[in-house]
Amino acid sequence: MTRILVVEDDEDLRAVVLHGLHTDGRTLLEADDGLAALTLIESQGLPDLILLDMNMPGMNGWQFAEELRARGLWRVPVIVITAAHDAARSAHEIGAADYLGKPFELRALRSLVEKLLARATASAHV
Amino acid sequence: MELEMAAVLDAMPVGVYVCNGSGTLVFANKTAMRISGVSSLEEMREKAAHPIAPPNLRTLDGKPIPQSFLPMQRALKGEEVVYEMEVFDSETRGTCVLRTRSSPVRDRNGAIIGAVKVAIDVTKEHELARVKDEFIRQAAHELKTPIALIKATAETLASEEQPATTSLAALIRGVDRIDGLVSSLLDLADLEGGLFSFSRYPAQLERVITDAIGRFPINAARRVHVVSTPIVVQIDEARVRRAIYAVVHNAIKYSAPTSTVEVTLTREAKAARIAVRDHGFGIPADKQPHVFEKYFRAHSGTPRDAGGIGVGLFVAREIIRQHGGEIWFESAENHGSVFFIEMPIDEAKTPEAT
């Protein structure tokens, strides 16, 4: 079972992303801020991929990345999802695997997710 | 004559500095002293505020400026120097931004005997421009999430044979949120330009509250409990709805996702009163006086920063005041806030017919 964690504070957007990524053989997890995501990871283990919004109340994306690194858990691909003109910079700042600017196409999100999951699987089998 | 001249110069709203041929400061008017945060010429000569040879003058991007490049030094060599921005650090006032013009002073024969600098303090304007730039950036940023929501939802709908009503509802909420943000921007622009005009008609306040809450996502809306009584008021419905939305939105944003928000509509002596109570973070005492200021966001840059453009409550207050009402709050840090909106009921004009 592949597990994807969606960290996004906007309830509506989170729902539509979860819906868009839903397929058989996938477990989708959700958190509305970095702290909720961290708690979820600590209780259920690391997912295979994380989608991360940057501007969130509570623990934001930068702090979440820092916390994850501090715990030695920065071992999964992270896709940054934030306003288009900030996405590349934010992804670079936290050292994310990739990024997608808002607004994005679900199709583009799906193919990016599949690409990163395939890459992670390939490197796991080397 | 010299005394009269000094009085004239002191009365000017611009700073005037004069140096002699060897570059020594010999005169500064009252405004110049105020700009530099000093009370005498001697003090000005000694301090960092020295307009002729300041020790740590730098450009806006922080680069040091060599003494020979300074406007007064150049003016002494016969140059007319106009600077749009000149920054210096005053011990008493902090960083000042000036718009300056420096010119040589010549005798009858045209020989340079000194230089004069005229400076306008544009620190406030500069700060306002920075705040506006930041505001525009923040507003554009805020629009991206509902736009992303609409785009992704529309894409979902396009791929479904039987469009789900939940997707359609999310789509409509996304459009409503953008509309709300854009309307707030327009209200703000109208307020600034003195173009704010109202169209008031009788409306059931109860329904206006329900409409405002209906614009939040399902789980957020579920947290809001309404207790109301039927009251008809003469209002600009769309604007009052935005004011109520802004207050409830803050209550939702600045409290735990599991806590409730209580909205009660009651009839006072001659007014309708809406109370919005949350059990959230509260507003720190030192931030409370600024809550209704334009662009102010009490939790900006803190872990509680939930985004926003800092105009919701500012516009809300203007809207409520234009209705002859008032908006105020009671808050204690970590104990939540209660916001009150009160609008007069004109019994003569609005009989409770329905």
What would your notes on this structure say?
The complex is a heterodimer of chains A (126) and B (354). With 126 residues, chain A is of the alpha/beta class. Chain A has helices spanning 11-21, 34-44, 61-70, 84-94, 106-124; strands spanning 2-7, 26-31, 49-53, 78-83, 98-102. Helices cover 49% and strands 22% of the residues of chain A. Chain A has a five-stranded parallel β-sheet. In chain A, strand 3 (49-53), helix 3 and strand 4 form a beta-alpha-beta unit. In chain A, helix 2 runs parallel beside helix 3. The longest helix of chain A has 19 residues, at 106-124. Chain A is globular, with a radius of gyration of 13 Å. The two termini of chain A are 20 Å apart. Chain B has helices spanning 2-11, 30-36, 41-46, 71-76, 123-159, 165-192, 205-213, 218-222, 237-253, 312-322; strands at residues 15-20, 25-28, 81-90, 94-106, 112-121, 201-204, 224-227, 232-235, 261-267, 271-278, 326-331, 337-344. In chain B, helix 5 runs antiparallel to helix 6. In chain B, the strands form three sheets. A five-stranded antiparallel β-sheet of chain B has the order 2-1-5-4-3. Chain B has a five-stranded mixed β-sheet with strand order 7-9-10-12-11. Chain B has a two-stranded antiparallel sheet with strand order 6-8. Chain A binds chain B through residues 9-13, 15-17, 19-20, 32, 55, 57-60, 63, 82-86, 102-107, 109, and chain B through 140-141, 144-145, 147-153, 155-156, 167, 170, 173-174, 217-220, 253, 257, 299, 303-307.
Quick tags:
heterodimer; A: 126 residues; alpha/beta; 5 helices; globular; B: 354 residues; alpha+beta; five-stranded mixed beta sheet; 12 strands; 38% helix; 24% strand; disordered C terminus
